[in-house]
Amino acid sequence: MSRATNRDEQRAEIIAAARSLFQRGLTHGSTGNLSVRVGEHLLVTPTGSSLGTVEADELSLIDAAGAHVSGPRPSKEAFLHAAMLRARPEANAVVHTHSTYAAAVSCLDGLDPEDALPPLTAYFAMRVGRLPLLPYFAPGDQVLEPAAEEAARTHAALLLSNHGPIVAGTSLGAALDAIEELEETAKLFLLLRGLPTRPLTPEQVRALARHGK
Ligand SMILES: O=C(CO)COP(=O)(O)O
Ligand SMILES: [Zn+2]
Questions:
Q1: pTM, entire model
Q2: Does the C-beta of 77 come closer than 6 Å to ligand 1?
Q3: From 43, 109, 168, 172, which residue has the greatest number of CB atoms within 10 Å?
């Protein structure tokens, strides 16, 4: 497959994912951003765009360090996408949303910064795993870069305080799957607040990993 065709397909894949997230209310307004690895570069949604209307020829190209290469000005979170992909060589895509329930959890006081959500269900343990909470910085503040890169070495999903989740996956489909699981688990967590709850035990979580789930 020629490089041009490949990039066309990846552009189409980003737009399909963007529409899917927007149409289902998983991100709103001009929030959220997506990226896919293309060789040494990343295709990323442009800053200020709505995932409901951004078009394939409006995507930006950045390098592995997060520097703008071509196209419109990239997402202000492009540096986070680049940091996650540097930290996770097996990953090929990153998704960031302001999905309501995950954003709500990111505003709670007293969360465990090493694990913001308990493993309530097997699918959360399988698709997301441990979820570190990163400290609050204004959107686009690159001060977050070293902490994000460090946390991403051992975690595919991060929760940005008072903001929302960012998730890397081996494919865009896998990253979407994981961020949707994260959102649903955040919803369960809030539904269950104040009720006696029994998350999976560490042994149950280990057994899922042992069976490659
Ligand atoms: O989610 C966002 C900021 O955190 C949206 O920013 P961009 O429009 O620059 O992608
Ligand atoms: Zn954001």
A1: 0.96
A2: yes
A3: 168
3-state secondary structure of 164: strand
Please indicate whether residue 101 is annotated as part of the active site. no
Q: Could you tell me which residues come within 8 angstroms of residue 8 by beta carbon, excluding any fewer than 6 positions away?
A: 56
The single residue listed with the structure tokens 């709505």 is 50
Q: Is 25 helix (H, G, I), strand (E, B) or coil?
A: coil
Separation of first and last alpha carbons in the chain: 32
Atom of ligand 1 nearest to the CA of 139: 4
| Residue among 28, 96, 99, 106 to mutate when testing ligand 1 (max atoms within 8 A of CB) | 96
Burial (0-12, 13-18, 19+ Cβ within 10 Å), 154: exposed
Map out the domains of the chain with their CATH numbers: 3-210 (3.40.225.10)
